[in-house]
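Weekend entry, working from home. Most of the wet-lab plans are on hold until the incubator is repaired, so I used the time to fold the two sequences that have been sitting in the queue since the last round of cloning. Logging both here for the record. First:
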Amino acid sequence: MQGKEPRARRRTFLWVGTALALALAATAGWMVLRAQSLGGSAAATPFESLPEPPPYDLGLAVDHLSRAVAIQTVTTVAGDPQPSAEGPWLEFHALIDQTYSAISARASFETIAGLTRLYTWQGTDETLAPVILMAHQDVVPVNPGTEKDWSFPPFSGAVAPPPGGGDDHVWGRGAMDDKGSLIAILEAADALARAGWAPNRTIMFLFGHDEEVSGAGAQAAFRLLAEREVKPYLVLDEGFAVLSNFPLTGKPAALIGVAEKGYLSVEITATTEGGHSSRPPRESGAVRIARAISALDENQLPADLTAPPFTEMIDAVAQDLPFATRLAFANRWAFSGLIEGQLTDPSANAIVRTTTAPTMLEGSVKDNVLPQRARAVVNFRIHPRDTIESVLQHVRDVTAHIDGLTIAPYRDGIGSEASPVSSTTGDAWSKLRSVAHAAGGGGDLPVAPGLMIAATDARYASAISTDAVYRFIPAIYDDADLNGFHGTNERLSVANLRRMIDAYAQLMMVTAGG
């Protein structure tokens, strides 16, 4: 009997081991199949055919953008332009009025909030929901002292190749952000009007005057449209573009923003007695602020790998992902920790969570005086899974162990919730997706939805639509181009200006008929 027990035990272990091996093999095979099928439906969705854009003079379009860039519509703080400083905007409006006579003769416009312009190109069928194309007139300032670092003066509107050679670009602040879009939209509309094309569906052009500081103009415009009960077919603003080097794949991809993050700055204050620095207490106000910042940095808000638009973006670019990466994303239940560990790139990290960024610090006015009031401002860009209130609660919870702190929204900050996530199914998305694909050269180029990590005027469009607001510029940008956004040597290639005019014209033609 004693000899039989070990044999029976060995047989049991053998069966259990075999069963586990088979289960592991089956699981591994199932995981591989999931990786192979990841993104299959996105890749199989066909793109629509597009009409030929109308003829236009690209040389004149380049000149128009050059002249627009030379007008210094700079905003620095909310409320800009200040009273009596509206001159550049009025000059810009005059340029538009004089340049685009064909569309001006067919579209009416109204001025909102002083300088924002809303154009309406009335369609023949008033029962159809309108298309709204957006851009903004203002630009960020050039950092003082960096003017000499520009290849061409930042408000010259120079038309020239890069110093190392290449194609012509329009150089200057606003060429990419966002006068390039504004001029391209008007060039496309004017060309369509000159060609005798007229829309069935009403087309609106909304050009905010202060997007870079508050977006009050666009906010007022969408409030007005909401009062008029306008329900749009599609709203398109600046945002993503065709990236020649998409970080996840190292290959080209077109990204369309279907949502954007919210914005909140939190002020953390520690009030203490102060005094002479020769007799410092163990925990001064400055130390408490330092501990609070450290705690927030070490306790980031959680990432979300399961919610759109992140999941849809991965599906759309899956065919270009390395197999190991596809395996991980197809089986997030098993590899979520590994994936999060790899999201060390700031841009990738910003896509999957609410980010925490200490930006302002304040203490004493003298090096030997303890501050009676130490303060920090921490900026959060809010993921759609979070809200302003949940972020505030996170700050309270993470710093609860530190005595003497006051936590409140920053008094001079902009508070906005994350936008709704727009649809990636349906007619409007299909047409925009097809235009983006063509702008990027077609072929095997993937078109993916994405989450905008910066703020645009489109965030205010949620007043009239929760599922048809998109953010995309029909241009191809490489890493050098992207460095120009709010930076030195901002420029737009003539080739990209042509792509943008063609794409905006095609988008109007396929969405508004005619």
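Second, folded right after the first finished:
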Amino acid sequence: MNFLKKLKGARGFAAGVILMGAVCFFIHAKTEDPYFEISKNLDIYADLFKELNTYYVDPIEPGKLVKTGVDAMLEDLDPYTNYITEADIEDYRFMTTGKYGGIGASMRKKGDDIYIGDVYENSPAQKAGLHPGDLVESIDNQVVKGKTIDDLSLLLKGTPGTQINIKIKDAYTNTVLQKMVTRGEIEISSVPYYALIGEQNNIAYVRLTQFTQGCARQVRDAYDSLKREQPNLKGVVLDLRNNPGGLLEEAVSICNIFVDKGQLVVSTKGKIPEMDKDYKTAGPIWDKNLPLTVIVNHSSASASEIVAGTMQDLDRGVIIGERSYGKGLVQVVRQLGFNAKLKLTIARYYTPSGRCIQAIDYAHRNVDGSVGFIPDSLKQAYRTKVGRIVKSGGGVLPDVLIKDEPMSTIAVTLYTKNYLFDYATEYARQHPTVVAANKFAMTDAEFNQFTKWLENKDYSYKTETEIELDSVKKTAMKENYYEGSKDEFDRLKDKLSHDKKQDLLKHKDQVKQMLENEIASRYYYTRGRIAQGLQYDKELDKALALINQPVEYSALLKPGK
């Protein structure tokens, strides 16, 4: 075919052209001769690319141009269908495995300066003596001031075993040091924290943060460890908050921890019937009788929703928290030329009751290209194993709904301006050790020291009310009403103006908890953040209360509740 000859002559950009043709197939599938449409559009694309490459006045970057064009084309689909270039493979590998080659530390930018952010426990960065708050001056003799986080990521990542020279200003001693760090294979555990909790330490708690390869084995091992420590467990908590999902097969294996072998967990249905599939549990169950609570929030998506939805449909556990995100779409990765890949949506998934929890309708866009949520009128009712009503089209609605407290403006400001981070560095400098993370809390006197430290810092901000007033003022000026109402505007502005110190006192508990959490991470890393935060966790408190109240727990799993 003529278009194939032109494709080969497109100077090595077959991956992008093939991808474009694949999407053209979907777009033109309803025409009388879709194959002619594919051939025609590939011809046009190849000719256009050759003309640009030959005659455009300035040099072009072919790879970048194709990536931009493909990304724009895929915007008309859903946000989960992505073109992955060879340069992006490392990031994709990290998403699916939790592993990458690097030093095991994140970077934080303040103005043009770069600081060490989180340092992962037992990582090369920790072993080399890097601390959160260290000012990074250079990496392999390259000055980093002004660089982006993406630039730094390229410098820091590399083959395990290779060395990198990092020049820092130590956060604790203020001395300039050269640190030779040997890169390693960094694996971010999907189970960063598990513990026995409750007044009697007889409830098994596990936090699962992502569905990467092998995470189901990590979860089962965590529960095994807790059961060995406490053979008389009273219940189980599985925390899926802020878990964006991942591998569907791992979600099925997680469900297998709590339900018998041979149980349908999820079905996928797409455009090609031959690719439809039922996923069932295949291994031995860990426990089918212990009371189970699953905690979710609005950032629990995809595989998290498969687990929560399945436990709900089978009446195996009580779901607690906020309505989940609502991602009921399944992706696969297809290999393209030149080591590129295409991650594309091929199906929707359905929980055992038959419902799809997809919340956003990407197939029917508005005139302006925006998408909307599936309306309540189109959500269908399904029934769980014992007859409880559950609905499709809007994520997993918990059996016990608990709204997260919104972040106050002052808390967000102190976080984004790095004042919580900076003070945690100051605190760690002055306190070599602290109590265990799950018991750590600042005294009122210590918090007052923080407020004094803030006195000379600029953490000004506008409340939403002040922002709205400014908008009304601009509209009044545009319509020539402002001059006649200036005095009223000024009085209202004075009345609404906030006092930062009063705001700090008003939201003291929230700010204090965030600061404590940041400080705990300096001593106990990610597990410390989680353990410390559980002290103020109302969703977890409810989970524990239900496990300790069998009558109320059982009632929630009956029809009509």
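Plan for Monday: verify the second prediction. Residues 1-31 have pLDDT under 50 and may be disordered.
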